[in-house]
Amino acid sequence: MPSRRRSPAAGIACAAITTISGALLPIVTRYGATHIDPLLFCAGSAIVAAACALPILHRSDGLGLLLDRRYRLALAAIAIAGTVLPSLAMVHGMQRVNAVSAVLLLETEPVYSLIIATLVVGEAPSPRQLIATAVILAGIVSAFWGGGAIDLSGTALLVALTPLMWQLSHVITLRVMPPLRPIGVTAARNTYAAMMLAALTVVYRPTALSELGHLSVIGILLATGAIVYFIGTLTWYGAINRLSLSWTTALVVPGVPVLSVVFAALFLGERTSARQLAALALAVAGILGLVLGTDPSRPAAAQIEAIEAPAPPGA
Fold it and tell me: Of 3, 21, 34, 70, whose Cβ has the fewest other Cβ atoms within 10 Å?
């Protein structure tokens, strides 16, 4: 019987948490895009996420990891590709694209994942993965084909390209993790991103800092930074350390819009059309075809320790 740390069950649990966090991303980003200065929203969320991660990193691997010359360039690249660019792209794109349309556009991620995982990481897709991904894509196309629901010539294109940036950051991450652990990469990614985005805000949007005087702004930044940026990033890295990159992506991405539709109705009052519901059903069929009876293990990957909270003082 495999040990708890060597079982893919921990990776699947991380992927499930990431799915919930990912479902909240377009909701809070849509709110931030329409109620808060975009740069302030991105910078504030990254700062909160860094504040959550740094104390844990200090107790586990030490803060010196952030400036370790062996990893600092890779960590900076992960921050740029994984947080800075996609955050700015999404928040600007979602000024005109609602949350439901955005989550469907984000379903392009399995395509980027399979291409990059095959060409760069060396994870050749199986026939089942290819078929399941084709079904997922059919769901996306059916949502917009001939419906005139969205114009990809404008800011919506930023949302559609966001998953490509995420996938590029994942490729870099897999080169350094292991030996780095999820908490180290999470802390570094958010810390570097927070510094970059804060500098951009001070230089280009100094007047936006006055918005921090509103409790509603503080609340959304705290929730986005802690739940979406910190927990979502940490559990994602925990998942791809144990599971195939393309398998994990295809598990998480189709599950996100199902929850996002519920969250969009609850928090934003957005309603889903019959065409979009049919597309979601097709995407779910694709994901079931992908995960049932397949091996999610990350090929030739060194196993790392499970994500655990630091021991209480004196333990």
Answer: 3
